[in-house]
């Protein structure tokens, strides 16, 4: 690499550039709001509390609330990385990347919905799960992690799909015991137990399942930018995940366990997004967060081998999708 390339790489990985990328993401969302390009995505898969999309009136309030939730998710990702040395670097570029690519899907970034709530809760649960690696006395944190998932289920029952994922994560963390499984079960049912036991909400509604044929979504040209962004994220996760695999195998057992949990979460979210095609917007924010860790790994592993080229090209592709949506 030339001296100019090294300088450019350092600039991209710097804290200042991370802040600028985050500000650019906020500006892009504001532009989409002003241009009326934020299509409403209604949540209807609730069994108890009102769906997140109904918490606030549509418009600027909902947009700013969602931006705060997405930024909070990025902050939790940074804390996870620094506390557990996940990416072997203190650079926050991967979190800025996450915020940027999410902003390239204005329908997801520009309004408060279950998608951002899912990402924040899952990253919080990952933080708790990471903290119990090979610790015998950890039932309270297992309880809390599954309590968060159970709380999410009251507003969006699709959260329940992640229960087996985090049960498997207990095995990755070497705490897969009867006591921990019991703590997970109790944690998951406690939110419903409290709300219905105290009569805080009416009797639960029967979940409404629906299926939209992919051909119907593909026929609407307005959905193509969002579908393209999701497809690009899935492709990026597959490519970077495989490229990082050889390096990650060389890590110690604890680091491999951490990355194994993230890989499991990434694969599960990708599968859910493909199979549950009707509910695709729900998974986009979490999928972006999972893939952002893979991009961070790749950039760290190839920092001296022009890795910035692939990352910049990828971000340019997302920005192209954003402009496609703005001009369509």
Automatic annotation (TrEMBL):
Ranges in a coiled coil: none
Keyword vocabulary terms for this entry: Membrane, Transmembrane, Transmembrane helix
Transmembrane spans: 59-80, 92-109, 115-133, 145-170, 224-245, 257-275, 281-301, 308-327
This protein's name: Uncharacterized protein
Organism of provenance: Duncaniella muris
